[in-house]
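Lecture notes, part 5. Sequence design as translation. It can be helpful to think of inverse folding as translation between two languages: the language of shapes and the language of residues. The source text, in structure tokens, appears below.
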């Protein structure tokens, strides 16, 4: 009898993968509700379509690799990847954009390296970066906050109708990046993309994902080190380079914490146990690195938000961080970082 070759994390035990993934999905509910309240049913349709695409791609690759479909599909890891990716995409992304993003996330970001537990990069962020670089117009087409019915949302997503011009607007991060003349106070009073503290609507969405992240922390599904490291570094960087309300200002710390995908990245992306650092100190450094890179890209880079690029760049650094932050082995005074030739 041929036994299935199964990699970690394993599906059995008190903290099995299926239960962890379901808890993560549950924690995204406040953010999903906020997005749906702001932008209508496009978010829910994107989520459903992304999940169907992820399950399809996962089943296809597992069949080609001759792996047991039921065993691996029931861990819900593909669904979590699809949900996180769909939440990062614009609410009314065309169906083919979501299909391409999910395909690259599952095939290139996950299964190419052997499946769950072996991917060196965050799969959702790989899919996001691929479509961001390839289709910048579609990825920067965000609707103004409003509600729309499910039929209208289906028509927009699957190409039966186009978004009205009045729906589309630049995000607060994008507006602040290209601003050269207006002061911060003028932007807040004249531009509808800005809310009370951050971007219009994104404040509520970020608070929703913050609530979900605190729930996961309460459940001890991850430690506080990576999210706190990222948020603290982002706040410190924005405080250092914040010059008040001038036209060349890059925004206050509160603006950066409550705009874009900050809380989604802090609690659902940098906490990935596979592609991040493993020790507590390593996770703190990993999160801080992401926070610094996010601010650098937002302030001086070519993209309005830098969560995906920051995470992928720090994924590259994770093995080195692990090497230099390896905890002390029990019974030894110092951590063992390798062996010399001849030992």
């Amino acid at each position: 009898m041929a036994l299935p070759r199964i990699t970690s994390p394993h599906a059995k035990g008190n903290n099995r993968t299926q239960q962890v993934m379901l808890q993560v999905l549950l924690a995204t509910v406040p953010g999903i509700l906020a997005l749906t309240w702001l932008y209508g049913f496009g978010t829910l349709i994107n989520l459903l379509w992304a999940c169907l695409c992820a399950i399809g791609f996962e089943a296809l690759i597992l069949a080609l690799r001759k792996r047991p479909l039921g065993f691996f599909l029931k861990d819900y890891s593909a669904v979590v990847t699809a949900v996180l990716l769909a939440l990062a995409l614009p609410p009314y992304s065309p169906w083919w954009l979501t299909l391409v993003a999910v395909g690259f996330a599952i095939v290139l970001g996950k299964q190419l390296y052997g499946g769950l537990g072996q991917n060196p990069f965050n799969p959702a962020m790989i899919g996001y970066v691929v479509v961001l670089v390839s289709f910048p117009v579609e990825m920067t087409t965000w609707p103004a906050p409003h509600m729309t019915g499910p039929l209208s949302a289906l028509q927009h997503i699957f190409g039966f109708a186009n978004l009205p011009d009045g729906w589309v607007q630049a995000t607060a991060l994008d507006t602040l990046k290209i601003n050269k003349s207006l002061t911060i106070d003028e932007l807040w009073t004249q531009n509808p993309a800005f809310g009370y503290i951050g971007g219009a609507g994104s404040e509520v969405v970020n608070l929703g994902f913050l609530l979900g992240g605190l729930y996961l922390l309460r459940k001890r599904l991850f430690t506080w080190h990576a999210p706190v490291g990222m948020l603290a570094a982002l706040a410190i960087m924005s405080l250092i380079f914040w010059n008040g309300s001038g036209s060349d200002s890059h925004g206050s710390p509160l603006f950066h914490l409550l705009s874009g995908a900050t809380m989604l990245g802090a609690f659902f992306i940098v906490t990935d146990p596979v592609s991040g650092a493993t020790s507590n100190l390593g996770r703190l450094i990993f999160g801080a690195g992401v926070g610094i890179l996010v601010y650098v890209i937002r302030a001086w880079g070519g993209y309005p938000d830098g969560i995906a690029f920051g995470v992928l760049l720090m994924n590259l650094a994770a093995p080195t961080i692990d090497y230099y932050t390896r905890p002390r082995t029990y019974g030894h005074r110092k951590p063992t970082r390798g062996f010399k030739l001849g030992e």
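The translated text above is only one of many valid answers, since several sequences can fold into similar shapes. The first strand starts at residue 142 and ends at 143.
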